[in-house]
Amino acid sequence: MRILVTGGAGFIGSALVRYLVSEVGATVLNLDKLTYAGNLASLAPIEGANNYSFVQADICDYAKVAQTIADFKPDHIMHLAAESHVDRSITGAKDFVETNVMGTFSMLEGARHYWNSLTGDAKAAFRFLHVSTDEVYGSLGETGLFEETTPYDPSSPYSASKAASDHLAKAWHRTYGMPVVVSNCSNNYGPYHFPEKLIPLNIINAMQGKPLTVYGDGSNIRDWLYVEDHARALHLICSTGRLGETYNVGGRNERKNIDVVNRICAILDELRPQNAPHSKLITFVTDRPGHDHRYAIDATKLENELGWKARENFDTGIRKTVEWYLENEHWWGPLRGEYTGERLGVLKA
Question: How far apart (Å, rounded) are the C-alpha atoms in residues 118 and 192?
């Protein structure tokens, strides 16, 4: 199996590439632009593997994309490359529209022309997986879950750009017959996560005695998915999912943001008691614009049709994550020179 992964130096992408190379045994080409969030150090465990290779390229560069696909001759394309941080999209929406919309168009067109060149079993076996987010569905009330049929209602430039890319992927299936599958996941966490998102940012800030910033009153709820569980799900969806379908991937681990931060503090109190209680560092800040209140995924379709189950619950996953950051300052330390933990997405008056 030959698999082209876009965004394979990012957080979710690197977890997927490590899984495909080490556990599946696929031959993987990682195509990544290496923006601030792309880090080849996340692939150090497999960098010497003879079934892994890397090409630096921008998915918006159609000529490069088409040539890379033609040269590598993938059986599957798993498209993860995207701008993904809501806060950054608030003040820099242009990059999100260009990468998430036009980049996806470029990937779909490159894949379509390659697929049309195939014949027989190779054409029948080809798959294009478009990886997206539950944020396209908007915000839930106190009850209910996002299902694959939930209407789209994005709130941020990030989620709007991802919603647009989802529609493109589905349209390429319906218009051109291209073998496309779409996945929408809940919030991921785990090792190798760029330290701008809630969990890695607050783990590192707590370790360094810096404020643990929580938006609003901390009551916003997310459904947390351990990244290695997500990687397994993506391979399964791409390999065996029904063409033209969407599969939601969630961990069934709803938590309020404040409860997540308090859990991080409790684990650090246990593992680094000299700085306890870490909760004294919690600082509530003005909420971000358009902050969705609650996300929660119904993963029944994925579980029943494809037999996937999350292996980690939040308690096991968050402990593994905290322990990993404690043990791997060599990975995240240099990133603090690029991003020191300052708040992003603040609109100027």
Answer: 37
